[in-house]
């Protein structure tokens, strides 16, 4: 009975077949390389829920293509930076000491949504080794994208984002906006806007033992991403449509990353 209001708000039964048809209409096709940001609830009530969505994506791009999703675990970070909620300063040494190590096969995602978390558990999905900003991938280029994810600067040149840029991949927004667009962090990294790096930390496994490891990250600000994205759409054509009941966009990663870098660099000059 808990789902009754949600079902009543769904205009027609949503199945794997209807999802595939909508993906094709948006421009997705076999062989595509696509990074997905998604909101399950935006789609309406789906027969099979998030599992059906993942299967529809896989059947659309096929094994000749590749699907990538963010799999971040931002709870595995230095508690001195936590804000939602902050923790008392006297707790921080114990949190660093007791934080479970990142285990790619088991550590759940945080704040990525039910579709991304389900995707993580599917057979043949690979996950990068970064303890707080990992990515998952399935398909032809999964290993190329996921392997060799640098501990320092997780969204920089030695990241899955840079490999997606090389492959001329696309970004699929399912009921989400630019504030979720992880790829724009690569634009931040490439922008010449004077932003600083800082020392982050996470628990991970090293030589079979759990350790607290420090590394470098770049200051990021996803609060600017919707502003940048709306400016981008005034200059570039993008695919806009609907999947089930969710407003969706399909965008090439290269022009968006390049535009983000230029936009942020120009802000510094104003």
Question: Could you describe the 3D structure shown?
Answer:
This protein is of the alpha+beta class and about 270 residues long. It has one domain (about 5-270). About 35% of the residues lie in helices and about 20% in strands. The protein has ten helices and nine strands. The strands form two sheets. It has a seven-stranded mixed beta sheet with strand order 3-4-2-1-5-9-8. The longest helix has 17 residues, at about 255-270. The N and C termini lie far apart (about 55 Å). The relative contact order is 0.17. The mean pLDDT is about 95.
Throw out a few tags for this protein.
7-stranded mixed sheet; Aminoglycoside N(3)-acetyltransferase; 10 helices; 270 residues; 20% strand; acyltransferase; Amioglycoside_AcTrfase; single chain; two-stranded antiparallel ribbon; alpha+beta; globular
* Contiguous runs where pLDDT drops below 50 for at least 5 residues: none
Q: Pairing-aware structural class of the strands and helices?
A: alpha+beta
- Note the gap between the termini: 55 Å
Helix content: 25-40%
Query: Main β-sheet: number of strands, strand sense, barrel status?
Result: 7 strands, mixed
How large is the count of helical segments?
10
Radius of gyration: 19 Å
How many domains, in number, for the residues?
1
Average pLDDT over all residues: 94
User: What gross morphology would you assign?
Assistant: globular
Overall number of strands = 9
Side by side, the strands of the main sheet go 3-4-2-1-5-9-8
Please report which band the strand proportion falls in: under 5%, 5-15%, 15-25%, 25-35%, 35-45% or over 45%. 15-25%
The succession of helices and strands, N to C, reads HHEHEHHEEHHEHEEHEEH
């Amino acid at each position: 009975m808990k789902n009754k209001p949600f079902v009543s708000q769904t205009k027609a039964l949503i199945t794997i077949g209807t999802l595939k048809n909508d993906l094709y209409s948006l421009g997705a096709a076999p062989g595509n390389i696509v990074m997905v940001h998604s909101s399950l609830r935006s789609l309406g009530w789906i027969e099979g829920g998030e599992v059906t969505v993942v299967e529809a994506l896989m059947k659309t791009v096929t094994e000749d293509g590749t699907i990538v999703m963010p799999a971040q675990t931002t709870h595995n970070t230095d508690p001195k930076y936590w804000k939602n909620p902050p923790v008392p300063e006297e707790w921080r040494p114990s949190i660093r000491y007791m934080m479970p190590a990142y285990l790619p096969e088991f550590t759940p995602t945080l704040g990525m949504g039910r579709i991304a978390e389900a995707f993580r558990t599917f057979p043949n999905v690979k996950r990068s080794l970064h303890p707080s900003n990992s990515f998952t991938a399935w398909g032809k280029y999964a290993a190329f994208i996921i392997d060799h994810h640098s501990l320092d600067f997780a969204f920089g040149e030695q990241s899955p984002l840079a490999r997606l840029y090389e492959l001329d991949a696309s970004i699929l927004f399912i009921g989400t906006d630019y504030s979720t667009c992880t790829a724009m962090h690569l634009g931040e990294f490439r922008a010449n806007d004077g932003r600083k790096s800082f020392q982050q930390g996470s628990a991970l496994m090293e030589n079979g033992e759990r350790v607290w490891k420090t590394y470098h990250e770049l200051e990021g600000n996803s609060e600017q991403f919707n502003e940048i994205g709306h400016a981008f759409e005034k200059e570039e054509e993008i695919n806009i449509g609907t999947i089930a009941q969710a407003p969706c966009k399909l965008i090439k990663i290269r022009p968006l990353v390049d535009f983000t870098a230029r936009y942020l660099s120009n802000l510094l000059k104003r």
